[in-house]
Amino acid sequence: MSFLLVALGAAVGAPLRYMVDRAVQARHDSLFPWGTFAVNVTGSLILGVLIGGADAVPSTLATLLGTGFCGTLTTYSTFGFETIRLIEDRAGFYALTNAAASIVAGLGAAFIGIVIAEAIWP
To answer: Which domain holds residue 84?
Structure first.
């Protein structure tokens, strides 16, 4: 059953990541990878909510959304690739900003998600 939940979540998360990434990036005339940044921060927020509500969220929903959906919505490999590409393109400031902002914003979003979950499910 878990395998099917992960597959179902992934079937939604992966195409959504692609569509959101392309839509966000198309709106910014910048070397900075805004699309990947947006999906990674969003996924961190969702995972934070799931972690914060671990006692209230059914394990099947956590598997579907946490592992399946967020596992394919977020993308560490693309983050790494885009950061290296920025370095290769001599856009060191953007590379450093991407790395630092992604870590800070991702952790911050996860923390905010936990706070939200604890407010919903005290």
So the answer is: 2-120
